Structures are given as structure tokens and as C-alpha cells.
From TrEMBL, chain A:
InterPro entries: Znf_put. This is Putative zinc-finger domain-containing protein. Residues 4-37 form the Putative zinc-finger domain. Pfam families: zf-HC2 (PF13490). It comes from the Bacteria.
Automatic annotation (TrEMBL), chain B:
Residues 10-71 form the RNA polymerase sigma-70 region domain. Belongs to the sigma-70 factor family. ECF subfamily. The keyword DNA-binding applies. Keywords: DNA-binding, Sigma factor, Transcription, Transcription regulation. Pfam families: Sigma70_r2, Sigma70_r4_2. Gene3D superfamilies: 1.10.1740.10, Winged helix-like DNA-binding domain superfamily/Winged helix DNA-binding domain (1.10.10.10). It comes from the Bacteria. Residues 124-172 form the RNA polymerase sigma factor 70 region 4 type domain. This is RNA polymerase subunit sigma. It comes from Methylotenera oryzisoli. GO terms for biological process: DNA-templated transcription initiation.
């Protein structure tokens, strides 16, 4: 029987590579009887979802705007770039 | 002067800036990324019209953001930002000799309530900032920038096994940090 250490390693690796058939079967068997590893798996999934939400929340946060000074600088930069061409 | 740039900046500049900021976490770098995107957009003018202008610009920005992240990584000695010693034994603070959890993972969910949710996300953000330097770079590349493992390995000159071990450890540290610091109200 696979240990929790081995199972949790495979749970993490399943986010990075496809598991082999035998790894999948052994992991499935372990998860059938181990609440702690099931919770670990849920935690990693939640981590993914939460990281995604942090990004989406910021992308949609209209209170954060490109500073006017930066906008002006970008336009200046592009104008001088085009003149030098 | 390309009049498009004014339009692009006015209509999409704020969004592009937030997109960059959400990934680079640094206002100056985010501004630079927007600037690079505008320069590239004019130079190549590859807008095909089969998507929205915003999608097109965001596509360019995405590459710029990853490029900047790479550059930041290259500026540091590689031994400072990767942990090649991370092996089986590096998980000893989580498992006993027989491979059992020392502290069993607890169940926690993403809160439904918006306020609690934003508290949860700021705890996660803080935990991420606290990741050891040797784990943070790879974690950011993989789980924040969602770069392919193959490219990460090339970038950091490590084997896939090294990458898996470090990501495993980074995720383990992060979930533990969340568990300890996220107290349900």
C-alpha cells in the first residue's frame, strides 16, 4: 500500500505530468481509504482556483489604473522611437 | 504618431496594466510591460481582426510578462533561486519515517462571502510572498504564470524530476501556511 508521502507526491505531480496507469490505480486505492490525502488533494485544487481568482479580481478591479505619468511616458517613448526610424 | 496607440491606451491601458500587475506584483515592471506591449503592437501590427483588440494586446502582454519574469530570474545566481537539494528527505517536516502525515491536512474551503473571500486571498498572497526564495521562482513560473514544465526546465536548467520535487515542496509549504493563517471567522 502506498504511503501518504508517496500519495501526496503523486497528487502534486498530477498537476505537472500525466500519471502512469499503475500510479493512478495505486493513488485511487489510497484515496479510497485516506481522508487526510483527500483533503490535501482538495487543498491543492483550491490553491489553483484561488490563485486564478487573485489574478481575475485584480484584472477586473477598476480602481487600479495605469498612472497618467506612465501613459505619457509610453506615448513619448513611442514618438521618439518612430522619429528615430 | 500612430493614433492607434492613444486609442489602445485609453481603452485598454488600465486593463493591461492590471493584467501585468496581477502577475508581476510590481508597479514599475507592470508599466514597463504595458510599454513593451505597445511598442511591439505598433512594430508588428499583427492584429488579424479575428479577435478583439483587447485579446490581441493581452496576448502580446502575456509574452512580455513571462519575458520579464525570465529576465528577473537570469539576473540572479541560479543557485540562489533553485533548490536542487530538495529531495525525499526535504519532506521530513511533513511526514514521519513511515510516510504518515505529521499533521493531517485540515479541510478548508474558499469562502462564499465576498469580504471573507478577499481576506482569504490576501492571506494566500502573503503566504506566497513568504515562500523560500529557492522555491518561489519555480512556483511563480508554474502556478502563477502557468508556464509549461518543459520550458521551465530549460529556463532554469533543471531536470523534470527536480522541477516536480520543488513544486511539490512549494505547494506543501503554501497549503500549510494557509492552514495556519486562515482562521475561519
Amino acid at each position: 500500500m502506498m504511503t501518504c508521502k508517496q500519495a501526496s507526491k503523486l497528487i502534486s505531480q498530477s498537476l505537472d505530468r500525466p500519471l502512469s496507469w499503475s500510479e493512478l490505480m495505486q493513488l485511487k486505492l489510497h484515496l479510497m481509504i485516506c481522508g487526510a490525502c483527500n483533503r490535501f488533494k482538495k487543498q491543492l485544487n483550491l490553491l489553483r482556483v484561488a490563485l486564478q481568482s487573485i489574478r481575475t479580481n485584480m484584472e477586473n478591479n477598476s480602481a487600479i489604473t495605469l498612472p497618467l505619468a506612465a501613459k505619457a511616458r509610453i506615448i513619448d517613448q513611442i514618438e521618439s522611437d518612430q522619429q528615430s526610424q | 504618431m500612430h493614433s492607434n496607440v492613444h486609442d489602445w491606451l485609453n481603452e485598454h491601458g488600465d486593463y493591461l496594466y492590471r493584467f501585468a500587475l496581477a502577475r508581476l506584483k510590481d508597479t514599475h515592471q507592470a508599466e514597463d510591460a504595458v510599454q513593451e506591449t505597445m511598442l511591439a503592437a505598433i512594430k508588428h501590427n499583427s492584429f488579424a481582426g479575428d479577435s478583439s483588440v483587447r485579446t490581441w494586446l493581452t496576448g502580446i502582454l502575456k509574452h512580455k510578462v513571462v519575458d520579464m519574469q525570465r529576465k528577473l530570474i537570469r539576473e540572479q545566481p541560479i543557485s540562489d533561486i533553485i533548490d536542487l537539494d530538495a529531495g525525499e528527505e526535504s519532506m521530513d517536516d511533513f511526514f514521519d519515517k513511515t510516510g504518515h502525515w505529521l499533521d493531517k491536512p485540515q479541510s478548508f474551503d474558499m469562502p462564499d462571502h465576498a469580504l471573507e473571500q478577499s481576506q482569504f486571498l490576501s492571506v494566500l498572497d502573503a503566504c506566497m510572498q513568504k515562500l523560500p526564495k529557492k522555491l518561489k521562482a519555480i512556483f511563480m513560473l508554474r502556478d502563477v504564470h502557468e508556464m509549461e514544465n518543459e520550458n521551465i526546465c530549460k529556463e532554469l536548467d533543471i531536470t523534470p524530476t527536480n522541477a516536480w520535487v520543488m513544486l511539490y515542496r512549494a505547494r506543501m509549504v503554501l497549503r500549510k501556511c494557509l492552514e495556519m493563517n486562515w482562521v475561519k471567522g
